[in-house]
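job 3f2a | input accepted
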Amino acid sequence: MTAPKGKYAWTATVGEKGQIVIPKQARDIFEIKPGDTLLLLGDEERGIAIPPKGAFAELFGVAFQEKDGESV
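job 3f2a | predicted structure (72 res):
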């Protein structure tokens, strides 16, 4: 089976401390660098998702935008 363009699947092993290593190809594609902070979203029925960097920047910008000169 060939994956659709832009779709990927990887596996990662969880170590004793609960850590995983993000595969190099995934780090390269998503430009994940040492020291980056990643957001993990969890749903007990659907699993864990790691959205791309910047995916929530606009949402945070709206949440913290100033109204009438005051921070929300």
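job 3f2a | The chain has a mean pLDDT of 85.
job 3f2a | closed
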